[in-house]
Amino acid sequence: MNPDHPHRDSDDDYRQALAEGWLPIRDVSRRTGVNPVTLRAWERRYGLVVPQRTPKGHRLYSEAQIARIQEILTWLGRGVAVSKIRALLDEDTPPPAEAGSSPWDDLRQQCIAAIGRINERQLDDLFNGALAIYPALTLCEQLMLPLLDELERRWQGQFGAQLERVFFHTWLRTKFGTRLYHHNRQQRGAPLLLVNQSDLPLEPGVWLTAWLASSAGFPLEIFDWPLPPGELALAVERLQPRAVLLYASCTLNLPQLSRLLAGVDCPRLLVGPATAIHPDALQDQVSTDEPLHLASDPVAAFGLLRELHLINGEAP
């Protein structure tokens, strides 16, 4: 080590490792969609992926470890608890049938109980605990979307349903709106533009879509209110977004949709239940020179953004 520059050797080692193909944690996060907090939790709590460390403590990952992370994501997508995955990765024999049992049912019922008690702190703790060890995509697919479906069934004709609905939707918008605000302050580049074309206030699908899209490392502008024809093109002119996402959970005025999209010359996506309400009529929009891409829910929208190379991330 150079006595006049005690950190020079370790800095040189770090640069040499990068030149040899080792990846820092920020690049691993970008490629896999797993945020650095979760990667560190997998390392400390479960020993799932243990990176090399430089003398200064920087984590460095190999391509083999990237492949291992992709395997972890595959198991998570099948509903396997993160605490069981190391044994599945390390053993040579096929996993027993019970290894695929889902950890999500109990967590979902705990969330419903917290919502029923209007207990914001408990709901927040449950979500934060899951977010610390699961990627956003897994958490949305395995917890949030099934939770919304079960809550809608619970709220059919139940006394107090509107109280629970307003509480939960307000919590969800506040939670993800705050995350989005802090995320946007750290990002640069052309944003994704997400517009709520539903009449439903506090539309939960909008905020789940925003959360997943922002998890890929890009800024996101969100308008939580429908725009009239002409003004969406104005927003595109001023913001120069990489893509426009319209979220709609209800019946659309299709002629108005065509007028709304006029002059929007960047990639266009329609997300939400409206894609199932108008499947045939929307095919005319899909087949135009500037197609309207369709995604049924936030998870499908995330996958479509990846397919169109509008965001990074290789998570399944």
Structural overview:
- There is one protein chain.
- The chain has 316 residues and is of the alpha/beta class.
- The protein has 2 domains: 91 residues, Multidrug-efflux Transporter Regulator, Chain: A, Domain 2 (Orthogonal Bundle); 204 residues, Cobalamin-binding domain (Rossmann fold), CATH 3.40.50.280.
- 53% of the residues lie in helices and 9% in strands.
- The two termini are 44 Å apart.
- 34% of the residues are buried.
- The N terminus is likely disordered.
Task: Record keyword descriptors for this entry.
single chain; about 325 residues; alpha/beta; Multidrug-efflux Transporter Regulator, Chain: A, Domain 2; Rossmann fold; five-stranded parallel beta sheet; three-stranded antiparallel beta sheet; 8 strands; disordered N terminus
The name CATH uses for the topology of the largest domain is Rossmann fold
How big a fraction of the residues is strand? 5-15%
The percent of residues in helical segments reads: 40-55%
User: What's the gyration radius in Å?
Assistant: 22 Å
The total count of strands amounts to 8
- The CATH homologous superfamily of the largest domain is termed Cobalamin-binding domain
If classified by CATH, what would the architecture of the largest domain be? 3-Layer(aba) Sandwich
Helices, by number, come to 15
Written as H for each helix and E for each strand, in order along the chain, the element string is: HEHHEEHHHHHHEHEHEHEHHEH
- Write down the overall geometry: globular
The level 1 CATH classification of the largest domain is Alpha Beta
Question: What strand order characterises the main sheet?
Answer: 5-4-6-7-8
Class inferred from helices and paired strands: alpha/beta
Compute the separation of the termini in Å.
44 Å
Number of domains: 2
